[in-house]
Design brief:
The complex is a heterodimer of chains A (436) and B (251).
Chain A (H helix, E strand, L loop, with lengths): L8 H13 L7 H17 L14 H4 L12 H11 L8 E6 L2 E2 L13 E5 H6 L13 H9 L4 E5 L9 E7 L5 E10 L4 E10 L7 E10 L4 E9 L5 E10 L4 E8 L4 E10 L5 E10 L4 E10 L5 E10 L4 E10 L7 E10 L5 E10 L5 E9 L3 H9 L4 H17 L5 H16 L3
Helix pairs in contact in A: 1-2, 2-6, 7-8, 8-9
Chain B lengths: L3 E10 L2 E11 L4 E5 L6 H9 L5 E9 L2 E2 L5 H7 L1 E4 L6 E5 H15 L7 H14 L4 H5 L1 E2 L5 H15 L3 E5 L7 H13 L6 E6 L4 H4 L4 E6 L2 E6 L2 H9 L2 H7 L1
The chains are: A alpha/beta (436), B alpha/beta (251).
């Protein structure tokens, strides 16, 4: 029999969550129907576990155990704590879009003077107006279904054709709760010929602990457009963050995605990217900086549906103590997608004997004129490089830090904007400096 | 007090004894050449003085400025003035040469309780030295030794030597992999650093390098010991007659 059908206490716990949360969930009619259908699928699948191939290394049944009740909408006290947490992550000059415990908070956001061609509204408004398609997802993933069922809010960003934004957009997720969950769904639609940069910062307010985040973002990129995204996840050390990105790219566009995970006790970012227009370029770079018993998973599915696209995936993990990093990269090349050029490289640096890195590349190629490849390495710091630096006067920790910085630098350098790149480097440096 | 005193040094690598009681004294201002066939222990000696892991000292001592250098971490040795110019300088992708130089120089200064260099002072100093060694600015922007030719790597070692101003320079097979022009540039750089306050140990297989860096003393190593010492003429003698005669002496 199919193990996934076995009902466990954990999926029943989820069932209660949905029933209890209904009053908090915006939308009626078709929206409510969409939620109920998604929840039925989640209930059937249950929390993903190690016998589900896509979740082999991140067994949520063992690691997460249950879905916590949805957090209440933040009160004034929670908003004050969220505001205090914003200061450390807000990027100067960016259009700030703040979600507190999954609820869009206009009062903490900065949407008064938007550039021409940008429109922003909340998912809640749109769902209340009956836009159920904003919740649908093309992937039958249990956690994404849970997101569809429970998404309370999110931001909807629309960028008109030809709009070239000079200010980056920044979505900031702040958690203020303990032992509660959140679910949000955001959208970014970038028109033809448009250009934008999106920063996503994920943080915890002081005192927030042991919460569960399930955020999803759907990104659609038009033709001849250019988008850079930079996601920096710094959730509380005992928090769970299972997030999804659903991306479709048009023709002759450039998409540059970057993620750095340094927070969260248990986390996964799963990206489902479809190259749906010819001759586009997709670059995905990721860094996991994990220590103690942190578990960080980056799972990417890049679907080359049309000819002539290029995809590059470059992932670096730095693991200390008993940390566990997972990289799963699947490249699908559809029968029509001739002249596809897809490469992925994943490297893990183990600073401790007890750290673990799992790398799983998967190539599914159905076209015959393509160039695809993958590479994976994992190992300790190179002793000969360490000795060279120490022979030049660098104490051991400093020598290690310099080499680790260089190691992750190979992924960070994909960030084109110099100020943002420096910011990410500083975040990585700060992580290294707190190494015991 | 001699700058460096090596007394009856015995060293093992993975159960195999490489140095069997080596004794050598180097005073300030002196240039010593250590010659010998492959496998005689020349590079081991340089690594042990610099503190490379993987060597087990089973006997004897190494005193630098009167202190037991073997008890120090490699970075402490560097801060005290020991500099090893590597036979094969490593490539460090992702670490810009300038960042590396400044980090290293300031780490040494900090360890000595000196003030760190300000950025303008540091840049001025690097540019000055780089120019004298014919090192183009763009080389300094690249990753440490990444994509450098053999000659460039050795010039980068000399650049560091000039920048860190060590009191003992150990040049491990500086001539390996260099053509005559590259060798001359590197050797000129080294000669410019000769000073009454600084000693050098020049390790080489071939006499050729010693035409450019003329030593005060020459020692012949064979099978883990110094088997003969003399003046610079000893190198010429070796060039004529080879190492075979010493292999017997050491046996």
């Amino acid at each position: 029999m199919n193990v996934a059908l076995v009902k466990t206490d954990t999926s029943r716990a989820g069932s209660d969550v949905f029933t209890l949360s209904r009053a908090r969930l915006p939308g009626t009619g078709k929206v409510a129907e969409t939620r109920a259908q998604a929840f039925a699928i989640f209930e059937r699948l249950g929390l993903p576990h190690r016998r589900v191939e896509e979740w082999k290394y991140t067994d949520l049944r063992a690691l997460m155990r249950e879905v916590l009740p949805l957090a209440d909408a933040p009160d004034a006290k929670a908003l004050a704590r969220a505001k205090a947490a914003l200061a450390s992550v807000a990027v100067d000059g960016a259009v700030r879009l703040v979600l507190v415990d999954g609820v869009f908070v206009a009062g903490l956001s900065d949407i008064s003077a938007l550039e021409a061609g940008v429109s922003i509204k909340s998912l809640r408004e749109a769902l209340e107006a009956g836009s159920e398609t904003l919740l649908t997802a093309s992937v039958d993933d249990a956690m994404l279904m849970l997101n569809t069922a429970l998404a309370t809010d999110g931001v909807l960003i629309t960028i008109a054709d030809g709009a070239k934004l000079s200010r980056p957009l920044q979505i900031i997720h702040v958690a203020t709760v303990s032992k509660a969950s959140r679910a949000s769904r955001s959208h970014l639609a970038l028109g033809n010929g448009a250009q934008a940069t999106l920063i996503e910062s994920i943080v915890a307010a002081e005192g927030a602990a042991a919460y569960q985040a399930n955020d999803a973002i759907a990104i659609s990129v038009g033709d001849e457009a250019a988008l850079s995204t930079i996601r920096l996840m710094r959730d509380a050390a005992d928090a769970t963050n299972i997030s999804s990105a659903l991306v479709t790219v048009g023709a002759r566009s450039k998409l540059n995605l970057f993620n750095m995970t340094s927070g969260g006790g248990l986390s996964r970012l799963q990206g489902f990217m479809t190259l749906a227009g010819e001759d586009s370029e997709l670059t995905i770079s990721g860094v996991n900086l994990l220590r103690d018993k942190q578990h960080g998973d980056l799972t990417l599915v890049v679907d080359h549906a049309v000819p002539g696209c290029t995809s590059r995936e470059n992932f670096r993990a730095v693991l200390d103590d008993r940390a566990h990093s997972v990289f799963q990269g699947r490249i699908i090349v559809r029968p029509d997608a001739q002249k596809t050029d897809g490469k992925m490289m994943t490297r893990a640096l183990l600073l401790s004997d007890e750290a673990e890195a799992d790398n799983k590349p998967e190539l599914e190629i159905f076209a015959d004129d393509v160039s695809c490849g993958h590479g994976a390495t994992s190992g300790a710091l190179d002793e000969s490089l360490l000795f060279y630096l120490r022979a030049r006067g660098l104490p051991e920790k400093q020598a290690q830090a310099l080499l680790v910085q260089a190691f992750v630098g190979e992924a960070i350098e994909a960030i084109e904007d110099e100020a943002l790149r420096e910011r990410v480097i500083d975040t990585a440096k700060a992580w290294l400096e707190t190494r015991s | 007090m001699p700058l460096l005193q090596i007394k009856n040094l015995q060293v093992r690598v993975e159960e195999r004894e490489i140095l069997h009681g080596l004794t050598l004294t180097v005073n300030e201002g002196e240039v010593h050449a250590i010659m010998g066939p492959n496998g005689s222990g020349k590079s081991t000696l340089s690594h042990v003085i610099a503190g490379k892991p993987g060597y087990e000292v089973t006997g004897g001592e190494v005193l630098f400025k009167g202190e037991d250098v073997l008890a120090m971490a490699p970075d402490e040795r560097a801060a005290k003035g020991v500099f090893l110019a590597f036979q094969y300088p490593v490539e460090i992708p992702g670490v810009a040469t300038m960042t590396f130089l400044r980090t290293a120089l300031n780490a040494q200064r900090k360890a000595r309780g000196e003030e760190e260099f300000s950025t303008p002072d540091f840049l001025r100093k690097v540019r000055e030295v780089a120019k004298s060694l014919n090192i183009p600015q763009d080389m300094l922007k690249r990753g440490v030794n990444v994509g450098f030719s053999g000659g460039e790597k050795k010039r980068n070692e000399v650049l560091q030597m000039a920048l860190f101003e060590p009191s003992l320079c150990i040049l491990d097979e500086m001539d390996s992999g260099l053509d005559i022009d590259a060798l001359r540039v590197a050797a000129d750089g080294v000669n410019a650093l000769r000073s009454p306050k600084r000693a050098m140990i020049v390790i080489t297989h071939y006499q050729r390098l010693l035409n450019y860096i003329v030593p005060d003393f020459v020692h012949v190593m064979s099978k883990g010991r110094v088997v003969k010492s003399g003046g610079k003429e000893l190198a010429l003698e070796l060039e004529a007659s080879g190492y075979a005669q010493f292999e017997d002496a050491a046996a």
